[in-house]
Amino acid sequence: MHEMALASSVVETIEDEAARQGFDRVRTITLEIGALSCVDPHALEFGFEACAKGTRSEGAKIAFIIPPGEASCFGCGETVGIARKGDACPRCGSYQLVITGGEALIIKSLEVV
């Protein structure tokens, strides 16, 4: 379950920012998890709750933004949406795609006090 390691990294990043910026608590965390990232939002949330105990993030709510997968196709030259890695281009059927979006895990915003 790599989500536990990711959750631990998110908590650590928030703790580092709290020390740097001087906030005491986190109320809401907005995470962007790309549709192609292979991260299960529910597992990440579960891991986050466990990792956040005793930290400034304990009890924080998590909001998810899940952008779709996106790729550039060498076959037709278009940028297209894809549901999974390994899918063919929905326009021309080519498998010569380079993923250009939807793989990231990003802390987009924090609501803090």
What is the topological layout?
Elements: H1 2-21, E1 26-33, H2 41-52, E2 61-65, E3 69-73, E4 79-82, E5 97-101, E6 105-112
Parallel strand pairs: 1-2
Antiparallel strand pairs: 1-6, 3-4, 3-5
Helix pairs in contact: 1-2
How would you describe this structure in keywords?
single chain; 113 residues; hypothetical protein PF0899 fold
Spatial strand arrangement across the major sheet: 2-1-6
State the end-to-end CA separation.
31 Å
Beta-strand share of residues:
25-35%
According to DSSP, the number of beta strands is 6
User: What is the ordering of alpha helices and beta strands?
Assistant: HEHEEEEE
Poorly predicted spans: none
Folded structure, characterized:
It is a single chain. The chain is an alpha+beta fold and 113 residues long. 28% of the residues lie in helices and 31% in strands. It has two helices and six strands; from the N terminus they run H-E-H-E-E-E-E-E. The chain has helices spanning 2-21, 41-52; strands at 26-33, 61-65, 69-73, 79-82, 97-101, 105-112. The strands form two sheets. A three-stranded mixed β-sheet has the order 2-1-6, with no helix packed on it. A hairpin with a 5-residue loop joins strand 3 and strand 4 (79-82).
